[in-house]
Amino acid sequence: MKNGESYSKSRRNFVKGITAGLLLIPFLQFCSDKVVQFIFRLSGTNHLLGHRLWIKDFPKPSSQIQIPYLIVGGGISGLSAARQFQKKGILDFLVVELESHLGGNSSNGENQYSKFPLGAHYLPLPNFKDKELLQFLEEEKIIIGYDSKGLPVFDELQLSFAPDERLFYKNTWQDGVVPKEGNSREQDVEFQRFFKLMDSFRQGKGHDGKYYFDIPLQLSSDDVAIRALDKITMKEWFESNNFKVEPLFNYIDYCCKDDFGLGIEYVSAWAGIHYFAARKQDATSNKIDSVLTWPEGNARLASHLKKYTDQKTLKNHIIYEVKVENSKVVAKAFDDVKKISVEIIADKVIMATPQFVNQYIIKDRKEFTKEFHYTPWLLATLTVTDLADNDSFPLSWDNVIYDAKGLGYVYDQHQSLNQIQSKQVITYYHSFSSSDLKKSRKELYKKKEDHWKQFVFDDLKVAHPDIEECTEQMEVFLLGHGMVSPAPGFIFGEAKKQASKSIENRIYFAHTDLSGISIFEEAFHQGINIVNQILDETTLDS
Amino acid sequence: MGKKFLRFEFLLLFAVFIIATCGLIYELVAGTLASYLLGDSVKQFSFIIGVYLFSMGIGSFFSKFFHKNLLNTFVEIEILVGLIGGLSSVLLFMLFESVAYFQFILYLLVFVTGFLVGLEIPLLMNILKDKVEFKDLVSNVFTFDYIGALLASILFPLILVPKLGIMGTSLFFGMINVSIAIALCFLLNKELKRSYFLKAKAIFSFVVLLTVFLFSDSILSYSEGKLYGENIIYTNSTPYQRIVLTHNKSDYRLYLNNNLQFSSADEYRYHEALVHPAMSIAKSVKHVLVLGGGDGLAVREILKYKQVEKVTLVDLDEGMTKLFKTNKVLTDFNKGSLNNPKVTVINTDAYIWAKTCTEKFDVAIIDFPDPSNYSLGKLYSLNFYQTLKNILQPDAAVVIQTTSPYFAPKSFWCINKTVMQVFPQVDAYHAYVPSFGEWGYTIAINGFGSTFNQVNRKADKLKFYNYQFDRFNYFTTDMISNEIEINRLDNQILVRYFDEEWGKL
Fold it and tell me: Nearest-CA distance from A304 to chain B in Å?
C-alpha cells in the first residue's frame, strides 16, 4: 500500500462491509427476491369510442344546443380556428372533442419525474415569411423580441438546448443525426452532393415566383417539373439521381419517417424533399437549424391555444352525424360520460377532424377517403435509473440509433435547468412504415403488451445494452392513425381536393390530412385559413 | 516439572517480546497517521510518543490493584490490546472525515493502548515472581521488551508500511497480538480459569481483525492515489461529485472529480482575487450571495468585511458543505466560515434556486466548477446571467471565476462576452495562482453607480490583493481571443471551446 487512497477506500468499505456483512446476512435472501418493481402501462387514442362510428349505436338526442359556429375536433387545427375566431371578435363558437383533453397529436403525459409528449414534440424555427406563426410565437413569449437586423429573438429556454442531436453509428455516438464519422470518401461525396441539391431546392423558385417548397404547403410553386416529384417515391428519386450509398439511403429513410411516418420506399419524393427544402432557416442569425421544444412537446403550443376555448368546449363528446338541414347544420354528439346524446344546431361547422373519421359522420365521403392513408405510431416513455452507454457523446435531446426499427428517443428532461436528474425519462418513437398500413394497424392492436415491451427494449439495446434492467416504468401509447401519409400522388391528387371542398357553404374542412403532411404549421394555418374563408364568404353574402 | 516450567516461562517471555513489538507499532501507526492527516510531523510524533509513554506509566501504576487471576487478566489484556491497537488506524481514518474532535479521539486511543501495554509488563512480572529468581526475571523481561522495540522500529518504515500500509500494519499486528492470546489460552489451558470463555473472546477478536484486514487487503490494488501522487487522506463520492483531499508535506489539496479545487499553499491568492475586487467596488455589501464555493473559502474572505450582514451560499452538494463545516483540518482553512451565524447555506441547484429567489443581493460571487460538460455549461449561459441580474440590487457587483485566460482564452472571453450582454459594466482580470497557473475572473457592475477602480471599503491584512484593480486587468497578447460567440443554452458554445482548449493540453 503506497498511498492513502487504499486506506480510505477500505475505510468506506469497512463500514459498508461490516454493516452489510454482519447484520444483514440473514436478510440478504429477501433483498435478492425483491427486484425493482417494473411498471408497464399501455394506452392510446380512444379508438374504442371512435370505432362505434361504424355501427352508431348511440341513443337518440335528448337535448339541443344552438350555436353559430361549431368546431369539431380539438387538435391544433380546431384550436387554431378557435383562436382565429377570437381574433376576429367572434366568441359564440363551441369546440367538441372526443378525448377527455384538447390537443390531438399535441398532447402529453406526465409522471413524477417529467412531462413527456404523446405525439408531436417540436417545432422547427418558422420561416421568416410566416408572419402569422411569428405573431403567435410572439404572443406566447416564445419570441421575446426582434434584433437589430429585424430577426426574431427566440427565448433561450424554449430553443432545444445543446447538445441537441446525436446518432449511434458504428458503435459510437456522434454529434448530429447525419452519419459522418467513419464514412468512406465516396459516401462523403454523396452526402455533400445530396445536401447541395437540397440547398438548391430550398432556394429554388418556380416560374410563378413561389418557392418550390414552402410552408404552409399550399404556398409552394405549381411548377410542373417540381410537382412531378409527387408522382414517384423518394426511393425512386434517390436512385434516378444516381445516389447509391447506404448511409445516405438510411439517413433519408429516417428523415421521411420522422416527418411523415412513411419511409423512403413509400413516401412521395415531393414530400421527402419538402422535409429538407421547405424550411428556409432564415428567421435567426444564430443557430439556423434549431428547433423549439418543451418537455411535454407540442402540448405546450396546444396549451397556449387552449385559452381561446375556455368555457367553449365539450370534451368526451363524439360527433357521430353532421348534415345540412333547412340552411342549418345539424350535428349529433354522444356524451361518453353521461351516456346521452345531444343535438347541436349551428350556422357553420368546421370539421377539424381527420377524413377517416369524417367519412362516418358525413355522407358520400367514403369514395375519396380511400385515398387517405394514415401511419400507425407507437410511443414508449421509459423511466430509467441510469441511461448508461459508451459515453462517446453526451446524452442529447434527440438520440437516434442508426438502422434501428424506430426513430430513436427524445430525452424529455433535456430542457431542464437542473445539473442532474435522479431518474431519466425518455420517449421512444416508432412509426409503422409499410405498404399495407391497415395491416400494420391491426397488428398494433392485436399484439400483446409483452410483445411491445420487448420490441422497445430490443430496439434500444443496440446502444444501451442494460436498458431493460435499468427501466423502472414504461408507458406505451398507441396511435392507430398517427398521421396522414403522403404516398405518391396524394398531395396534388384529386381526393385531397374533393375532401377539402366545403358543403353548401355550411360545412367546412380543416385538418393536416388536407395538407398532406402532418406538422404543426400546417394545422395552424388550416385553422386560420378556414375561419378567414368562412368570414370572407359571410362578408360577401351580406 | 522443570521442563514444563521452562515452557511456561519461555511462553510468557515470548509474549513480552510480542507485546513490546506491537506496542511500539501502534505508537508509530498513530504518529504516522497524525502527521498524514494533521500535518506537522515533528509535533505529532513528539506528542504521541509522550502520551504513549505517559500512559504506559499510568498503566504500570494501576497494575498493583490486580491481585487475583493474574494470568487470566494478562490474556484478556493481550486480546484487548490487539483489538484496540489493531483497529485504531481504521477507526481514525473513519472518524477523520466527520468528527471535529478528531485529535481527542486520536490521543484517547493512544492513551488506552499505552495504558494496556503498561499494565502488562508488571502483571507478567507478578505472575512469574514466585517461579523465577527476581534477578533473572527483571533481566529477561526487559531484554525481550527492548529487543521487541528495536525490531518494530526497524520493520515499520522499511517493510511494514511499504508492504502493508498503515492500516494493514496495525491490523496485522493486532492479529499477532491476539494470536499470542489464543496460543496462551491453549497452551496454558490448565493454569487458566474458565479458559473456554477466554478462547472464545480471543478467536472472535481474531476473526474481526482478519475480516477487516482482508477488506483492506483486497483494496490494495485500487490505485487512484497514483493519479494524484500525493497521500489521499479523504475521499467521498456524493451524488454529484467525487471529493478527494490529499496531503503532502504542508500542502493540502482538494480535488472535485479529479479537478484541483484548491491547494492550501496558495488558495489565498485565488480567493482574495475572487472576492475582494467585487467587495470593494460594490455600492453596498450588506447581503452577499455565493453560488458554488461550498468549501467556504470565499465566505471566509467575505466575512473580513464588518459591513456584511448576511451571506447566502448556494451549493448543490450537501456532502461538500457538511465536510467543510465539520472537518477540523478544513474548518481551519475556512476559519469555520460556514458555521458563522451570518452565513446561510442552501443545498440546492443554483440555477433553479435563482429562478425562484425573491431576495436581492448587493454582491454575487460565482465560483462554479469549470464548464467542462453540458450540465455545467448551463451555469455560464446568457439566460443564467439574465436570471442572476433579476436577483441583484442596482449597482450590485458580480464576479465570476472564468477559468484560465492563458490555457483557455476562447472560453475565458466567451464568458466575458456573454456577461457583457447582460450587465452595463463588465471587465476582466487575472491573478497568478501557482497550483492553477494564470487564472481569470469576469467582473460586472449592475449599473453605473460605481466603477472598477473605485474602492468603497477595504479589509485588513490581505496577503495578495492590494485594492489596485488596474494592476490586474491588463492582458498580454497570448491571453486574448477575438471572434468569440455568446454562450447560450441552445448552442453551449463555451463547452465546445473549453473542450477544444483544455482537451489539447
Answer: 22
Using an 8 Å CB-CB cutoff, list chain B residues near A159: 488-490
- Number of domain units in chain B: 3
* In contact, B361 and B312? CB cutoff 8 Å: yes
Cα B290 versus chain centre, distance:
23
Is residue A423 over pLDDT 60? yes
- Residue A380 phi/psi, 5-degree rounding, is -130, 125
Q: Do B490 and A164 touch (CB under 8 A)?
A: yes
For chain A, the residues whose C-beta falls within 8 A of a C-beta of chain B are: 1-15, 17-18, 21, 156-157, 159-164, 286-287, 290, 394, 417-420
* DSSP code per residue over B321-375: HHHHHH-HHHHHHHTTGGGSTTEEEE-S-HHHHHHH----EEEEEEEPPP--SHH
User: Cβ distance A526 to A517 under 8 Å?
Assistant: no
Looking at the structure, tell me whether residues B255 and B272 fall in a common domain.
no
Q: Which of A501, A515, A507, A509 is nearest to A530 (CA)?
A: A509
B-chain residues within 8 Å CB-CB of A164?
A: 490
Sequence-distant (≥ 6) Cβ neighbours of residue B323 within 8 angstroms: B97, B234, B236, B243, B330
| Peptide bond just before A163 cis, omega within 30 deg | yes
Q: What is the model's pLDDT at position A541?
A: 58
Beta partners for residue B375, in sequence order:
none
pLDDT tens-digit map of A515-534: 999 999 999 999 999 999 99
Structural domain includes residue B226? no
In a domain, residue B445? The reply is yes
Nearest 5°: phi and psi at A191? -60, -45
Rounded Cα distance between A300 and A411, Å, is 16
Pairwise CB contact (< 8 Å): B167 & A164: no
B271 labelled as ligand-binding? yes
Sign of the alpha-carbon torsion through B49, B55, B61, B65: negative
Of A2, A7, A17, the CB nearest to B93: A7
Chain A: give the shortest CA distance to residue B277, in Å.
29
Partner-chain residue, chosen from B219, B349, B491, that has the shortest CB–CB distance to A419: B349
* CA nearest to B440, candidates B449, B430, B432: B430
Contact at 8 Å (CB) between A65 and A342?
Answer: yes
Of B211, B231, B383, the CB nearest to A3: B231
Q: How many Cα atoms sit within 13 Å of B373 on the Cβ side?
A: 9
In a domain, B452, yes or no: yes
Contact (CB<8Å) B211/A2: no
The DSSP bridge partners found for residue B423 are none
Is B332 marked as binding a ligand? Answer: no
Question: Do B22 and B133 sit in the same domain of this protein?
Answer: yes
For A303-321, write each residue's pLDDT tens digit.
999 999 999 999 999 999 9
Chain B environment of A17 (Cβ under 8 Å): 211, 215
CATH of the domain at B272: 3.40.50.150
Q: Which of B210, B218, B219, B244 to mutate to test the interface with A (most CBs of A within 10 A)?
A: B219
The whole model's pTM is what? 0.76
Is B499 one of the annotated binding-site residues?
Answer: no
What distance in Å separates the CA atoms of residue B484 and residue B416, rounded to the nearest whole number? 10
Q: What's the domain range around B250?
A: 231-259
Q: Which of B220, B228, B376 sits opposite A1 (nearest CB)?
A: B220
d(CA A431, CA A485): 11
Query: In this prediction, what percent of chain A has a pLDDT beyond 90?
Result: 81
The domain A39-46+374-484: what is its CATH number? Answer: 3.90.660.20
Chain A hits for B214, CB-CB cut-off 8 Å, are none
Partners of B98 on chain A (C-beta within 8 Å) are: none
- Where residue A281 falls (left for φ over 0; alpha for ψ -120 to 50; beta otherwise) is left
Q: Which residues of B are catalytic?
A: 367
